[in-house]
Every structure is written in structure tokens, then in C-alpha cells.
Amino acid sequence: MKYLTMLQTICIRKKMNSIGIVPLASDLKKFKDYLKTTANSAAAKLQSDCNDRDAYKTLQQTVYCRIMLLCRKRPGELARLTVKKHKLMKNLKTKIRPSERILMRKFKRVVIKGKRKATPVLFSLDVQEHIQILLDLRSNFTSQNDPTSSQN
């Protein structure tokens, strides 16, 4: 048993000391631009045909990826964000520095329960618009018996 614990410790140390590959900023920008173009295209399709399942799913996926790209959160933490919490969250104006007020004009901040502590999630203006489209058309793609549709 003691041998197994020592082996686990060695493996953890090796993993912590290993070199990780980080994507280039230019690659992240290309990815963000691709997601934004794809999301805008899907949103335009949904405006012309509000029952287009493929466009709805594409918009969902691109919004999710863009939030993860901006906030660098674990998928499990982001999955804890409910529609109800998103709608109830308001930008708090008290006890905020002037520099933070400038950011609040461009981003919406929602705090969710993370693995160990509260985790802020930021939404840019265009992501907020896409989320609103998804929420407006949500009833076209979920049934009344769907447990997630009760979170409206």
C-alpha cells in the first residue's frame, strides 16, 4: 500500500513538472474569429427560419465555446450555469472601481459555484445577444416534459 502511494506521488510530480503546450495568441484569435463568424451565420439563419435545428445547435455550441475561450473555465463549472441564474444576475453598481465600470459596459459578469470557490463567468455583448436569441427560441426546440425547460 505504501509503495502505491509513493508511486502516485512520483507520477503527480512528473505531471506537474512536465512542459505543457500553450496555443499561440494568433491561433486563439483565428479560432475566436471562426466561432464568431459561425455564430453570426447561425443567428442569421435562425432569424429567417426560427425552427432550424441545425442552426440552433450550431449557435449553442459556438456560444459555449466562446464563453469557455474567454473565461478559461472547466466545462463542468460552466455547466452549472442555469438559465434562471443568468436571467436573475444583474450588474452590481455598488463598490465597483471606475476601471471595472468601464469593463461592465462591455461584459456581463455572472458568478457560479466552482469546484472550490465562486467562479466569475464573463459574457461579451455579442455573446449576450446570441444567448438572448437562444433563450427566445428555446421553446421551439424543447418539449414541455424536458426537465431543463423548467429553468426558464
Would you kindly provide a written description of the structure presented here, covering whatever features stand out?
This protein has one domain (24-140). It contains seven helices and two strands; from the N terminus they run ααααααββα. The protein is mostly helical. The mean pLDDT is 77. Strands 1-2 form a two-stranded antiparallel sheet. Helix 2 (25-48) runs antiparallel to helix 3 and helix 3 packs antiparallel against helix 7. It is globular and about 60 Å long. Strand 1 and strand 2 form a beta hairpin. Helix content is 62%, strand content 9%.
Which sequence of strands runs across the widest sheet?
A: 1-2
Order of helices and strands: HHHHHHEEH
Q: What structural class results from the helix and strand content?
A: mainly alpha
Radius of gyration using CA atoms only = 20 Å
Number of strands: 2
What helical percentage do the residues reach?
Answer: 55-70%
Shape by Cα distribution: globular
Average pLDDT metric: 77
Instruction: Let me know the largest β-sheet.
Output: 2 strands, antiparallel
In quaternary terms, these chains amount to single chain
Terminal Cα separation, in Å?
Answer: 50 Å
Please state roughly what percent of the residues sit in beta strands, choosing from under 5%, 5-15%, 15-25%, 25-35%, 35-45% or over 45%. 5-15%
**Continuous helix count:** 7
Q: Provide the number of structural domains.
A: 1
